[in-house]
Amino acid sequence: MTHKxxxxxxxxxxxxxILVKGSAAHRLASVLRxxxxxxxxxxxxxxxxxxxxxIEQGRNGISVRKLRHQSRSNESPLALTLALAYSxxxxxxxxxxxxxxxxxxRVVPFRAARSQYGLQDQQLKQKMLRWRRVLGxxxxxxxxxxxxxxxxxxxVPALLARVPEWGCVDADCLRILxxxxxxxxxxxxxxxxxxxxxxxxxxxxxxxxxxPAEAExxxxxxxxxxxxxxxxxxxETAAMALLTVCQLLxxxxxxxxxxxxxxxxxx
Length: 267
Prior knowledge:
Elements: E1 4-7, E2 17-20, H1 22-31, E3 39-43, E4 49-58, E5 61-69, E6 79-85, H2 89-101, E7 106-110, H3 121-142, E8 149-150, H4 156-162, E9 173-178, H5 187-193, E10 199-204, H6 212-220, E11 224-226, H7 235-249
Helix pairs in contact: 2-3, 2-7
C-alpha cells in the first residue's frame, strides 16, 4: 500500500509524536487532504522514515503519532556528486529533480567563466529555498530516504578546493569532467581502468563549455575528461547521461557492477 508522504525538516528518530508545520502541513491539509486517523509516511531526509497516524489538526500544525519504522534500502552504494554550472532556472530544476531520482548524493551549482547566469547573495538565498523544495519533491516521488545536499560555489577554483572535503582523496574516488574537446576517452573505457570506484564526482560545464584555463585547472586536479558522443548535448541532457552511465557502471543500475570481467557492452 502506498501512503501519502511528506518530508519533515527535522530529525524524527527520537520523537514519539511529530508536529508538522509550515509548507509541509499546508501540503498535508490542502493538497493531500489528510483526515484525522489517516496514516501517512513521514521522512526526514536523513535516512529515517516512519508510518504515522494523524491525531490532531490545528493552527499550530498537524500532529502525527509514529506507528512503526519504515525500512527501505534504495540508496545507491555509489557516493555520486554532480557539479553543475549555473543554467536557466527551468533547466536547473529539471536537473535537480532527475539527479535526485537517479540517486545523486550531492549537487554543487557553480559559476563557470562562460556561464550566462549568476546569482547574487539574495538571489541565491531564494534559489536555495526553491532548490530544496525541488529536491524534497523528487525525494518523495522516488521513495528515497536521504535528501541530496546542495552546496553552491562561486567558481571553478572554489569547486576544486572543496573536492578533498568531500572525501575524494583515495584511489576509490574518481573525478570525471565532461569536456567537449575530448575525442577518445569515454566512460566505459574509464570504468575498465577503475572498476571498483565507490565515489565519483562528475562535472558538467555551461552551454559555452569550459575555458582552456578552467580545463587546465581540472586536469591539474586529477580529473579525467570524457566524451559523451559525437552529438552536442544540452546541459541537462549531458548531466543525466553522465549520472545514468555512472550508476550503471559503478552504482546500482546493473547487477554486474564493479566486475571488471563483465563488459557492460555484452552483459
